[in-house]
Amino acid sequence: MAPQLPPQPAYILHSRPYRDSSLILELLTPEYGRVGCVARGARRDKQRRAQSLQPFSPLLVTLLGRGDLKTLGPVESAGSALWLKGRAVYAGLYANELLVRLLAAGEAQYEIFAGYQRLLQALEQLDGSDTQQLEGPLRRFELQLLYQLGNCPQLSYCAHSQGPVSTGTQYRLESETGFIPVYRQGDARQPGGEFSGAELLALEQALQGGEFAPELLTSAKRLTRLLLAPLLGERPLQSRELFRQVYNNNDR
């Protein structure tokens, strides 16, 4: 008999057809992180699929098997499904795709799981009519995810002085080092990879529990794009392309 793991809270990040009647699911769980599993007969059992095997629905799942690809056992609802609306749906799909692309399989992800829950709860509160609504929740989620994966340096730390950043200094993000001060003559325009110390300190404070002030959102987006680019590589995010096709814009 295949070993059975203890029941786990889970969300479905992605699903795809498998053989004649099954699905392969990518789950996010706190104890095992990203887990792949086969939901046998799920495409045949349309009622089960419609009721439980949906994105953004909190589940309690039992997984069977020793290999990397588990078998999905009993599934229970762990709460009300979160009904995302309009553009918020695509924000949720974007977060799901980030997690599938960036998380290693089988590693505990308690903080990331909690951050994902907070993101869905924030997105559920939106009417989804305006892309700008998505910016704060998404930037917080991206930065928290990058921190937990070890791909975001401490925002308030200067790698050169090995002390706190200074509000009046410009800093350049270097991938292997962190934030390095930049000194130049005159009022040369700030390149895309540079941030003021004041920006970095405000972003750190917002990430630690405050709100992202509207004037911080552009800086936060610029920072997350710089940090995500080498992790995602050249392959585009399907959720972002789908969003652009549906809403015919490039503002996310």
Describe this structure in words.
With about 250 residues, the chain is of the alpha+beta class. It has a domain at about 10-75: Nucleic acid-binding proteins (OB fold (Dihydrolipoamide Acetyltransferase, E2P), Beta Barrel). About 35% of the residues lie in helices and about 25% in strands. It has seven helices and ten strands. The strands form three sheets. It has a five-stranded mixed β-barrel with strand order 1-2-3-5-4. Strands 9-8-10 form a three-stranded antiparallel sheet. It has a two-stranded antiparallel ribbon with strand order 6-7. Strand 8 (about 170-175) and strand 9 form a beta hairpin. The longest helix is centred in the middle third of the chain and has 17 residues, at about 130-150. It is elongated and about 70 Å long. Involved in DNA repair and RecF pathway recombination. Belongs to the RecO family. InterPro entries: ARFGAP/RecO, DNA_rep/recomb_RecO_N, NA-bd_OB-fold, RecO, RecO_C.
Could you outline the blueprint of secondary structure elements for this entry?
Blueprint: E1 8-18, E2 22-29, E3 33-39, H1 46-51, E4 59-64, E5 69-77, H2 87-102, H3 110-124, H4 132-148, E6 157-158, E7 163-164, E8 170-174, E9 178-182, E10 194-196, H5 197-207, H6 217-232, H7 238-247
Parallel strand pairs: 3-5
Antiparallel strand pairs: 1-2, 1-4, 2-3, 4-5, 6-7, 8-9, 8-10
Helix pairs in contact: 2-3, 2-4, 2-7, 3-4, 4-6
